[in-house]
Amino acid sequence: MPSPSAPPTVDPAAYRRALTGALGPLDGALRAVDDAHDGGPLGKALDRAAARADTAADALQSAAVPDDALAGNGRLVTALRALGQDLRSARGSGGRCATSPRVELRAARSPQSIKEAGRALAALGYDVTLRLPRTERAEHRRLANGALVRDGSRGGLGRLTVKNGTAGDAVVTLTRGGRTAFSLYVRKGSEATVGSVNSGSYAVYFTTGEDWNGVKSSFTRGCSFEKFDDSATFRTVRVAGGTRYTVLTFTLNKVIGGNARTSTVPPDEFPS
After folding, report:
1. 220 in helix, strand or coil?
2. What whole-number distance in Å separates Cα of residue 262 and Cα of residue 172?
3. d(CA 130, CA 165)
4. Among 113, 159, 146, which Cα is nearest to 132's?
5. Rounded-to-10 torsion of CA 233, 238, 240, 242
6. Residues 87 and 46 sit within 8 Å (Cβ to Cβ)
7. What is the mean pLDDT of residues 172-182?
8. How is 136-185 classified by DSSP, letter by letter?
9. What does 126-143 look like in DSSP terms, one character per residue?
């Protein structure tokens, strides 16, 4: 009887070429992520890199792999698929209350998994050259309590005090006739007052959260966007012996005996 033939041996050089062919395009896409500016360009770069990660995983899953590299290759394929998912998740939807994708990537597990699989393969003589995207630490930007984020024309006598007992900093915005009159920054656990409010009826909006991004005019984490159901009316009238003007106080957190109701506002409808 003929003896059974031994299975063909996979050429390590061929596997090395497969690694280079699969990871080269991904490496270029990840370098583009590093170079991309925040916003639309970074989002597009993340999408391209995620697609390249999926393609690389498919290529290595179907590649002929030497026996000594089977375990490491399998770990690398799994890590590449996870990287594609993490890149898409980091991209997010943009808009207000959006943490930078580079901050989101810092918490991702897949880059570390890729490094571990790469070290295992490198120990066997298989080079895994892949530049992983740079990340950034979460920021904690705040304005001074009572800072005016935006200040329109104020020349009246009205005064508004805002008490913020919520878990985050807040920006309170008053609008009149669809236009922003002013926006006041109030740190959590604090109160702030703005004076010289003109007479009139104002809609009162407020947003709370962490890490104020002045460019986007929004917090980047834990955001909420709300509006008081009732308007705030300021009046200045002359009376015998002087002038009477309105002084109002708004408390952003719920208080016992409070009667001011609020409603959630879609982020894109919150005034700038």
Report:
1. strand
2. 13
3. 48
4. 113
5. 90
6. yes
7. 93
8. -PPP---PPTT-EEEE----SSEEEEEEE-SSSEEEEEEEETTEEEEEEE
9. ------PPP--PPP---P
* pLDDT, averaged across the chain: 90
Q: Is the dihedral of CA 265, 196, 150, 219 positive or negative?
A: negative
Q: Report CA 14 to chain centroid distance, whole Å.
A: 42
Question: What stretches of the chain show up as alpha helix (H) in DSSP?
Answer: 12-35, 40-61, 70-91, 101-106, 110-122
Residue listed under structure tokens 């304005």: 143
- The string of pLDDT tens digits covering residues 226-242 is 999 999 999 988 887 77
In the chain, the amino acid numbered 165 is G
- Specify whether the CB–CB gap between 36 and 45 falls below 8 A: yes
Q: 157 CB contacts (<8 Å, ≥6 apart)?
A: 195, 196, 197, 236, 243, 245
Joined tokens for residue 186? 């109030």
For residue 216, the model assigns a pLDDT of: 82
- The dihedrals phi and psi of 137, each to the nearest 5 degrees, come to -75, 150
Q: How much is the pTM?
A: 0.73
pLDDT band at 217 (very low <50, low <70, confident <90, very high): confident
